[in-house]
Amino acid sequence: MIEQAVSGLGVAKKPDILIDAPLRQPVIVETEFAPAHTVEQDATARLGTSLHSTGEDVEGVLSVVLPESFKTVDLETIERAAFRYATHYLDSDGAVRRWPPEHDWLEGGVDDLADAIEYLSLSERQLARGTEALEQVVRNAAGLLAKHAGTGPLSRIAGELHQELGEQTERMAAAICVSAFVFHVAIEGQDRIPPVPLPGSIDKPTLLDLWNAILEVNYWPVFSIARDLVEELPVKAVPPVMSRIAESISDLAQLGATTYHDSTGRMFQTLITDRKFLATFYTLPESACLLAELAVDRLDVDWSNRIAIEGLRIADFACGTGALLSAAQRAVYRRFRRAGGDDKDLHRALMERVVTGLDIMSAATHLTCSMLSSSHPSLAYGKSLIHTMPYGIDGGGTLSALLTFSIPTTPTRCSLPASPWAARNWTAVAGTPSRSRTNPVTWSS
User: How far apart are CA 374 and CA 371, in angstroms?
Assistant: First the structure.
C-alpha cells in the first residue's frame, strides 16, 4: 500500500493506520506502546513516501503513544482515554516539521486525534501553490481590468465596493469574479446549472446570461455582486478579463481550489489577509481557527442533537471575509460528525438561521457567503443572514456601520437603525432571488 521513499530505518512496509479519504491528502498514523522509543522515527520516515494505489505523496503523519494499560482494556475504555501524540508534516517548502516542537507531546482523546488527522489531510505545499496561483490570477485579472475597463466603469465599481478608484478596487473586483468562477466549477453538473464558460467563448451577454441562469436556481449571495460588476464593464473589457480567469480554472482545480472546501477557504483567506495585496486588515486563518475552537468548545450543547445545534446563534458584526464564521462553521460541523451526524443535514439551517455576518464591504460579504456556502455547494438554502450594512451617519445621527448588541435571555427581535442608504440583505430563495431592504436580526436563547 505504501511505497517507501526512505530506506534503512527499520520501519514496516505497511503503516499502522492509513486514512485515504476522498478529496483529501492521505494521512498515516503510527502507534507504539509507551515508552515508544521508535514511533517518531517511524512517523518521519513515512513523510515523502507515496501510495502504490494512487501515487499520492504522504505529507502528514500522526505519531501516537499508547499507554501500556491499553493492551488489556476494552474499546469503551479506549474511547475515553487520553493519548500523547504529535503531528509531523511537510511545510510549504517541503521541510519536515513537528508539532509541538522538540520532544514535547500533545495530550488528548480520540476526538482530538480525529481533529489532528483532519488538519494533516490538508497539504501545506498544495495550499501554498494554490494561494500563489490564485494571487497571480487575481493580479492578472486586475491588471486587465485597469487596462480595458476605463475610468468611468471603474469609478462606478469603486462606489459599489466602497473603495477609492485604484489598484485596491481592481483587485477586489477581480477577486469577486474569480470567486464566482471557482464556485461555478463546484456546482457545475447540478440540475439547471449551465457549464462553466470556456476561454475564448466569453463575451458580456453570454456571461450575464450564464450567471442570471444560476441566480434563477439559487446562489444569489455568490453570483449577484459578480453579475453586477460585469454589468458595469464595457463590452470590450469582458472577454480579456474573464477569459484570463477561465484559463486559470483548470490550474486552480488541480490544486484543490475548486474542490476542497477547506483548501479553497484557506487559499482565499491567506490571499486576502496579505496586507500587501489588498491593503486591508483581516483576521488570519490561524487566529480565526483558534478563536472559533475556544468559543465553540465552551458551548453547552448536545452535539448529537440536530435541533439543539440549529438553536445556536453565531454572529460576527464585522465579519470581513468570513474567517471567523467559516472557522466556527467547521468547528460545529466537526462536533456533529463526531457524534455520528452528517453535517449536510445541518447546512441549510446554519446558513438560514444560525450564522449572522455583517460588514460594510460588499466584497467582504460576498466572500463570506461564498466560503460558508462552499462547504456543501450542491445544497440549496432559502436565505442567508450575511448583510452588507450601510456606511455613514443617517439623518438622525445614528452611526449605521458600527452597532452594539446585547444578547437577551428570552426571544426578542432587534431591528437595525434606519438609514438613507439601503442595506443589502442577501437572500437566495430558489427560483425567486431578491434583495431584501430590511435587516431584522432575530436572537433566540
Answer: 5
CA triple 261-371-208, angle to 5 deg: 110
The whole-angstrom separation of Cα 434 and Cα 427 is: 6
pLDDT of amino acid 260: 45
pLDDT of 117: 93
Residues 6+ apart with CB under 8 A from 154: 145, 146, 165, 169, 170
What distance, in Å, lies between the first and last C-alpha atoms of the chain?
A: 51
The answer to whether the CB of 165 falls within 8 A of the CB of 154 is yes
Is the bond preceding residue 197 a cis peptide, omega within 30 degrees? no
Domain boundaries, the chain: 2-110, 126-254, 284-443
Directed axis angle between helix 362-373 and helix 323-338, to 10°? 20
**Cell numbers found for residue 392:** 455613514
At position 40, the amino acid (one-letter code) is: E
Q: How far apart are CA 350 and CA 186, in angstroms?
A: 20
CA dihedral 156, 159, 165, 169 (to 10 degrees): -100
- Asked if pLDDT for residue 344 goes beyond 60, the answer is yes
Digit-coded pLDDT (tens) for 154-172:
999 988 887 788 888 888 8
Cell of 445: 436563547
Q: For residue 425, what are the β-bridge partners?
A: 387, 436
pLDDT at 379: 83
Residue 239: what are its φ and ψ, rounded to 5°? -55, -50
Residue pointed to by grid coordinates 438560514: 352
Q: Residue 354 carries which DSSP code? A: I
- Locate cell 489577509: which residue? 273
